[in-house]
Amino acid sequence: MEKAEIMDESGIMRAVTRIAHEIIEKNKGVENLALIGIQRRGVPLAKMVAEKIKEVEGTNVPVGVLDITFYRDDLSMLSEHPIINGTEINFPINNKKIVLVDDVLYTGRTVRAAIDAIMDIGRPKLIQLAILIDRGHRELPIRADYVGKNVPTSKNEVVHVKLFDIDKVNAVTIGEMEKGIAH
């Protein structure tokens, strides 16, 4: 059940623009930089950030897609037949500055799995994390380098990020958690 909208389309676009500028500033430009979106909603977010970076820097930053399904520590609890969305990283990551992009940072377990997956592919120079919503409740010592919005939540609330590429709308809402679902 949805309680409130916490970001509309213009709020999401402002956050994406700010994240893009912060990435450029912190990395002193975009040389040797690549974005990797975590399936599912991290992928369109990574593409949105890359588009903003191109507007500012005039340079295309490579964007990869990372599926962390088999790296999850709760894989056995998910389903007997997990949905595989696929990894597509069509550029070398060795010695690159990699910015992982995802929609919601909660316990930190997804990010840990993503780092494990990246390290199995190669050895980047560094890995940074860009997140649209940081809702707190970390279980692992992980923090985002770039945050669109901090949204303090209770553990019985859920944050829904809806992006046009997947949901045909750009919005972030908060609601009550349905039984058995966490995000």
3D structure, described in words:
- With 183 residues, the protein is an alpha/beta fold.
- It has one domain: 3-Layer(aba) Sandwich (Rossmann fold).
- The chain is built from 5 helices and 8 strands; from the N terminus they run βαβαβαβαβββαβ.
- Strands 3-2-4-5-6 form a 5-stranded parallel β-sheet. Strands 1-8-7 form a 3-stranded antiparallel β-sheet.
- The radius of gyration is 16 Å and the shape is globular.
Number of helices: 5
How much of the polypeptide forms β-strand, as a percent range?
25-35%
> Which structural class do the helices and strands define?
alpha/beta
Radius of gyration: 16 Å
Distance between the termini: 14 Å
CATH topology: Rossmann fold
How many runs of DSSP E, i.e. beta strands?
A: 8
- Order of strands across the widest beta sheet? 3-2-4-5-6
Helix content: 25-40%
What is the H/E string? Answer: EHEHEHEHEEEHE
Low-pLDDT stretches: none
How many independent structural domains? 1
What is the level-2 CATH architecture name?
3-Layer(aba) Sandwich
CATH domain class: Alpha Beta
Largest sheet: 5 strands, parallel
What's the shape? globular
Q: Could you tell me the mean pLDDT?
A: 92
Key traits:
183 residues, single chain, alpha/beta, three-stranded antiparallel beta sheet, five-stranded parallel beta sheet, Rossmann fold, 5 helices, globular, 28% strand
